[in-house]
Amino acid sequence: MSGLRILVGVKRVVDSAVKVRVNSAQTGVETANVKHSMNPFDEIAVEEAIRLRERLGKDKIQEVVALSCGPAKSQETLRAALAMGADRAIHVKTDDELEPLSVAKLFSKVVSDEKPDLVILGKQAIDDDSNQTGQMLAGLLSWPQATFASKVDIKDGSVLEVVREVDGGLETVSSSLPAVVTTDLRLNEPRYASLPNIMKAKKKPLKTFTPSDLGIDIRARLQTLKVTEPPKRQGGTIVGSVDELLDKLRNEAKVI
């Protein structure tokens, strides 16, 4: 029996260290001349796929494939995933803004072609915070899903066991493969790619498709009317007594 194949989703987003600001047209955040990097939750997804192979062995995990949907510069993000340890990459090239359902449909088509045994995605992207793609993908594929994973294991070669972070604590779920997993922040700490691996990544295979190549309609179903920055925080005041505090809460803040 051949080993399992893992497909990992990665997205190019504005770097988490950048202070974002709304563009002049108020249609979104400013992205021109702004540093971009791999979505942090997707870094965790790539790291977990690599760790599964390191832990279980190459005979159990045959291949790790990175997939990204987005503009031409998304290939830089894919190369970063390859430098971390992915074997090859697939880029669905489009300059259109993609909604979670469109991304899920593109992934679904790639899954039908590549036939992976496990798909690992970050639980959300830090640019739109939708937290929808993984769940939608599982629905389109009719696959089991385990979201917000803080621990992932594969037992007996075909049984997925995931510890999930939930409001009340931790929940352990088990399912058969194939399945979809979305990663939470505490699953692992991604590695830094070494210089030799960065150089090797440049020679690893990367295929490019377009949404039309895959036969997927990515027309937007939602329209952003306006994006504005939150109001600036007002300075605090020091009150002289409890009575003055209650008066301000009642008559100025109107919270009581």
Question: Can you describe this structure?
Answer:
- The chain is of the alpha/beta class and 256 residues long.
- It contains seven helices and eleven strands.
- The strands form two sheets. The protein has a nine-stranded mixed sheet, with helices on both faces. A two-stranded antiparallel ribbon has the order 2-3.
- Strand 8 (159-166) and strand 9 (169-176) form a beta hairpin.
- The radius of gyration is 22 Å and the shape is globular.
- The relative contact order is 0.18.
- The model has no long low-confidence stretch (mean pLDDT 92).
Topology, please?
Blueprint: E1 4-9, E2 12-14, E3 36-38, H1 40-56, E4 61-70, H2 74-84, E5 88-93, H3 100-114, E6 118-122, H4 133-141, E7 145-155, E8 159-166, E9 169-176, E10 179-183, H5 195-201, E11 206-209, H6 211-214, H7 242-251
Parallel strand pairs: 1-4, 1-6, 4-5, 5-11, 6-10, 7-10
Antiparallel strand pairs: 2-3, 7-8, 8-9
Helix pairs in contact: 2-5, 3-4
The general outline is globular
Biggest sheet strand line-up: 9-8-7-10-6-1-4-5-11
Uncertain runs: none
> Helix-strand pattern, N to C?
EEEHEHEHEHEEEEHEHH
* Arithmetic mean pLDDT: 92
Number of helices: 7
Number of strands: 11
Rounded to an integer in angstroms, the radius of gyration calculated over CA atoms is 22 Å
Q: Major β-sheet, in short?
A: 9 strands, mixed
End-to-end separation? 67 Å
Q: Which strand-content bin applies to the residues?
A: 25-35%
